Amino acid sequence: MIPGTSVLRQVPAWQSQLARAITGPAELLAAAGLGEEWLPAAQAAARLFPLRVPRGFVARMRKGDPHDPLLRQVLPLAEECLTAEGFGADPVGDLAAMTVPGVLHKYQARVLLTVTGACAVHCRYCFRRHFPYADANPAVDRWQAALEYIAHDHSLKEVILSGGDPLTLSDRRLAELARQLETIPHLRRLRLHTRLPVVLPERVNDELLGWLGDTKLKPVIVVHANHAQELDDAARQALAALKNAGAELLNQSVLLRGVNDSVEALADLSEALFETGTLPYYLHMLDKVQGAAHFDVDEIAARRLMQELQARLPGYLVPRLVREVPGGPGKLALT
Ligand SMILES: *Cc1c(COP(=O)(O)O)cnc(C)c1O
Ligand code: SF4
Description:
Residues 105-317 form the Radical SAM core domain. The chain is of the alpha/beta class. The chain has 2 domains: 19-81, no CATH class; 95-333, TIM Barrel. The chain has 14 helices and 10 strands. The chain has helices at 13-19, 25-32, 39-48, 55-58, 71-74, 94-97, 133-136, 143-152, 171-182, 196-199, 206-214, 233-244, 263-275, 299-312, and strands spanning 98-100, 103-107, 110-114, 158-162, 189-194, 218-223, 248-254, 279-284, 320-323, 332-333. Strands 1-2-3-4-5-6-7-8-9-10 form a 10-stranded mixed β-sheet. A hairpin with a 2-residue loop joins strand 1 and strand 2. Helix 9 (171-182) runs parallel beside helix 11 (206-214). The chain is globular and about 55 Å long. The N and C termini lie far apart (51 Å). It binds pyridoxal-5'-phosphate and iron/sulfur cluster (SF4). The site of iron/sulfur cluster has 10 residues, from loops.
């Protein structure tokens, strides 16, 4: 604790966990039980997009295995420094779609707010790794413009909080935003896209459950797990608590080479999610962002995987395979 701050305000446990995340390549390699030979590349790649991973997520990795599906999502690799044909800085056209700072209105009836640039974990495949968050966040003075935009467009039924990860914001700010959104009569649902219940289950505390349970809007929480191994007991309990508070739980994943590009991994993930009351929603094709080409699974292989998955699972456990297309009316369904 920083001396002199304790009298002002108690820091919630999840915020200390967030602050204690591993950010150094050497520390991650040591925690994962890997040798120094991985270090130079990890340091070089971490200069392009900083490393960040909560300790609790690292604890779920198989030690000494460079192919561990959780480690692959967070360890910076030499491949990130290569330039690949067809991979760019803004692959989904987010900058063109930004009407008001922080407001992404690409699809009918729902609007996405990038409420923060911060994430608890830095996923190496992230399409936002080059995103200029400093210009995109509705800071205190710009918040009003986003709310006015939403209040004026009566076709909007749903507000999606995204980022970054919206649950890195304090419950005080989130509860205040929820209260302001509640006063807009045409809104029905408040959706949050977040990795925190999975990567930092401590985030799901009484304050969060309190305002979520109280809001007049129907809460929808889209978590983001890519592999069944991410869902340890703490993550499962966090999801159960969100469900008990009245939230609808969905999951989206990204299809990632070397992480979940097998029918076994995808089927196990769907089964594990269902046990927590979470339904598989989307399986995203990788957005073609510079530095992530080594995660790409081609469309033919992806469609074949989906056919096998459909044969193996009940329909409600099969996510929709989608691709983000700049300028499209929605995500493009591939299956
Ligand atoms: C993905 C996305 C949405 C939500 O799309 P759904 O199909 O409703 O999940 C909304 N706005 C933007 C900008 C998006 O990228
Ligand atoms: S949590 Fe989401 S926005 Fe943040 S780095 Fe991971 S994929 Fe990207």
